[in-house]
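Chapter summary example.
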Amino acid sequence: MRKVLFTPSRLRKVGTLAVLSVCLSASLTWAQTKTMVMASTTSTEQSGLFSFLLPEFKKFSGIDIKVVAVGTGQAIDMGRRGDADLLFVHDQVAEEKVVAEGHVLKRFPVMYNDFVLAGPTKDPAQVKGKDVLQAFKKLNAMNADFVSRGDKSGTNAAELRYWKNADVETPAGKPGFVNYKACGCGMGQALNMAASTGSYVLVDRGSWLAFKNRADLTILVEGDKRLFNQYGVMAVNPAMHPQAKLALAQQFVDWITSPVGQDVIASYKINGQQLFFPNAAP
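The structure predicted for these 282 residues follows.
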């Protein structure tokens, strides 16, 4: 048998080939792993929608999406900093502002549901009905216990808008009555706080349907057209944030607004109830 002599020169060649092999393997692995970051809301994440939706998108595209679930205001700020590749949020005024600033590209409507006002079954403030502004006026007049997310989320923005339109003074961005509790938290935590204290709370219907720890809470106000809750999706602009993965983000935008993605949204239900209703422009 012929002996192979490993001279210094040969060893250098073997070492170089080994390094090249490792680098090639790493490059192939990187190429096969496509990932991006989506900044979205706790309402979409805690409703269970993404656990249902994103595996379907991965089957279609091979792309993994890491969701950072925060309030809409925080999600939009992530887009402003370039800390995400994609935004999926629900505060149209704030969304249009960040588009105008140039941090994200075109906003696409994706789906909607509605907000509801939940509260204790006995309804001590007597708010039950369909008029959300009258309900908020009664909450203020009765000094009712109310839990606010207080986190600059889309839900929090809607709540503050209802107080303002109900002519309730909102110094420092919150109503003046004593029993207003701003938790600075996500929708699930706000619901848990309201359930444990018998307080009123504004919640999107998707989160309400997914919430199991309701205690004595029930829906008291629904059906007002002002409770409409629209969601939009936007890719972060690589012209302002070069690290943004536009090609991957655009694949999601195209898919979620296509008939296939819209059908996936429509098919997500809890106990037979649909949580979100697709309405992307044809």
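To summarize the output: The two ends are 73 Å apart (CA to CA).
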